[in-house]
Specification:
This protein is mainly alpha-helical and about 70 residues long. The chain contains two helices and two strands. A hairpin with a 5-residue loop joins β1 and β2 (about 55).
């Protein structure tokens, strides 16, 4: 079985796409808590994307970054 290669790269937030079938739904409280965390700590956990810039981990973080006008994810 082939091993997965992980790389850390910076991408422009405007180039990232939401995963349309994201099963996770956040409550208003969870969204507010994450927004406060982003304000305090910035983006501590990276977004996980696939090869076509679709976010497969971190759709709520992406939504909040876009809302705040973030440049890089």
């Amino acid at each position: 079985m082939a091993r997965i290669k992980w790389r850390n790269e910076k991408r422009l937030v405007k180039d990232l796409k939401f995963y349309p079938d994201n099963p996770r739904k956040a409550t208003k409280k969870q969204e507010e808590d994450l927004e406060q965390s982003l304000e305090r700590f910035n983006l501590a956990a990276p977004l996980i994307i696939n090869t076509d810039n679709t976010v497969i981990g971190g759709n709520l973080r992406l939504r909040l970054l876009k809302k705040k006008g973030g440049k890089r994810g």
